[in-house]
Structures are given as structure tokens and as C-alpha cells.
Specification:
Layout lengths: L2 H53 L1 H9 L5 H52 L6
Length: 128
């Protein structure tokens, strides 16, 4: 293995570390924003529904006489909830993957440190 290959491997490890950090930050942001957005969406939905039911009796009478219902609106909220739960599940799974990735990178760093110390020890640059 020549010096070019070694430099390429070091660059690859550094790239993996940078990408792991970026992916971790993106995952944490998503895990914070998705539940917050879901809660705000549900609160907004129920407050608007309550406002319509309480204040607009004419609209409700027309709605039920016309054979319409709130089924489609509830479907959208349910779909939003299921999607949010799926995103949180995938985010947690991604964090577990990043944790395993970090363990592997730490093993590589330990090997690099050991090789570095042995090389300099053989050259007599490091004292026992």
C-alpha cells in the first residue's frame, strides 16, 4: 500500500465524520420539528372545528343536510398523524444507525492512533 492510498483512506474517514455530523444535526432537527408541527396542526384543527360547530349553526345545518361530513378532514389529520409517527420512527432508527457508525469510526481512530504510535516508536521519535 503506497502513501497515496493511505492519504485516500484518511480523507475517506474525515469525510465520513463530517457527513455523520451533518446527518446527526438534520435528524435531530427533524425529530424536534415533526412532533411540534403535528401538535400545532391538531390544536389548530380542533380549535377551527370547535369554532365552526359553536358559531356557525347555519353552516352546520347546510353541511349535514347536504350529506357531507367531517370525514375527509379527519382523514387528513389521521394521515398527518401517521406520517409524523413514521418520520419520528425513521428518525430514531437513523440515530441508532449513526450511533453504530460512530462506534466504527472510533475503532478506526484507535487503529490509526496505534499505527501512528508504532511508526514513530520505530523511528525513535517517541520515547517509552
Amino acid at each position: 500500500m503506497n502513501e497515496g492510498h493511505i492519504n485516500l483512506l484518511y480523507d475517506l474517514v474525515e469525510y465520513m465524520e463530517r457527513e455523520r455530523r451533518r446527518l446527526f444535526i438534520a435528524t435531530v432537527i427533524v425529530l424536534l420539528v415533526v412532533p411540534l408541527a403535528l401538535v400545532l396542526n391538531i390544536i389548530g384543527f380542533f380549535s377551527i372545528t370547535r369554532w365552526i360547530l359553536i358559531t356557525d349553526a347555519d353552516f352546520i345545518g347546510t353541511l349535514f343536510r347536504g350529506g357531507r361530513s367531517f370525514f375527509s378532514i379527519y382523514f387528513v389529520v389521521t394521515l398527518n398523524t401517521i406520517t409524523s409517527i413514521a418520520l419520528v420512527f425513521l428518525g430514531i432508527k437513523n440515530l441508532l444507525f449513526l450511533k453504530a457508525w460512530d462506534k466504527k469510526l472510533n475503532k478506526i481512530k484507535k487503529i490509526e492512533k496505534k499505527i501512528h504510535d508504532e511508526v514513530f516508536k520505530d523511528k525513535g521519535l517517541i520515547e517509552n
